[in-house]
Design brief:
Largest sheet: 2 strands, antiparallel
CATH superfamily: dinb family like domain
Family: Belongs to the DinB family.
Number of strands: 2
Shape: flat
CATH topology: Four Helix Bundle (Hemerythrin (Met), subunit A)
Keywords: Metal-binding
GO molecular function: metal ion binding
CATH architecture: Up-down Bundle
Pfam families: DinB
Distance between the termini: 20 Å
Number of domains: 1
CATH class: Mainly Alpha
Order of helices and strands: HHHHEEHH
Organism: Pseudoduganella rivuli
Strand order of the largest sheet: 1-2
Number of helices: 6
Strand content: 5-15%
Low-confidence stretches: none
Length: about 160
Amino acid sequence: MLIDIFKYKQWADRRTLDAVATIDQHAFAGALAFARQQLNHMVRVEELFKARLLGEPEPHASTNTELVPDLTSLGQRITASNRWFASFVKEIKPPLLDERLHFQFVDGQQGSMTRQEILFHIVNHGTYHRGAIGHALDLAGAARPADTYTVFIHAAEPDRR
């Protein structure tokens, strides 16, 4: 199921990135800036949790930045992150999913989660922020892509209809 869930996340993120790219940057600069900020936050959190899963030093001291990268850069990083997580869930051995990792959040608070909980958080976190981006798309009059798991399943497996 984890493999399918991360395929779904990759699909939903791509649809969101494509939709954000249609926002008229001059007429709806605020909506575009908000969407980019949300995408930046999403990928930074993913990069932080990737480091935690690997036992590596955290790559960021915060979950967002004052200067937000352009949409192309964000798209590249999100795509790379999705590829990494998809590969990770294909390769990890089930007993390791229940291993609890201890870490420090960027706000200084201590945390501990199993690898499986971290993976659930990554998917759930992305869903939450894609929803917020959907509001920005609405404000900008851009098409808001359906990104639910049911739409994904039926797009990936049309014979289920």
